[in-house]
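User: Here's a chain of 126 residues. Predict its fold as tokens.
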Amino acid sequence: MTYPYAGEARPSQPTFSRLPTALVVSAWGKKADWYRNVSADPAVTIAVSNQRFPAVARTVTTEEAEIHLRNYAIRHPIAFSELGSLLVGGSPRDAEVTIRRSVETMPVVEFTPSGWGHPDRDTGAA
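Assistant: Prediction complete.
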């Protein structure tokens, strides 16, 4: 994939913990180069370990983002608290405030490998 907003072709480094879908929060908001690229062309290739998969990127709704962030806060309370206070400020003990501030400024993108059960989002790109 080329990166027109970055001015050069280079791999992005989001980390994927499991398939079939992965979520990435754009900490720099909608101005992040990678976010602008996947918004312009949602057919992407993701790499997990030494495997590469064609995938489709989709910015989740605000409601979906809140659910995902809440689940992350429950599973990883220390990491969520530290990251949240760094990225959006405020009290690290108030997860709901952190979640609301996060979804207001940081889009959450879902990456679904093509052909893995989401025909409405499957581009079939290889």
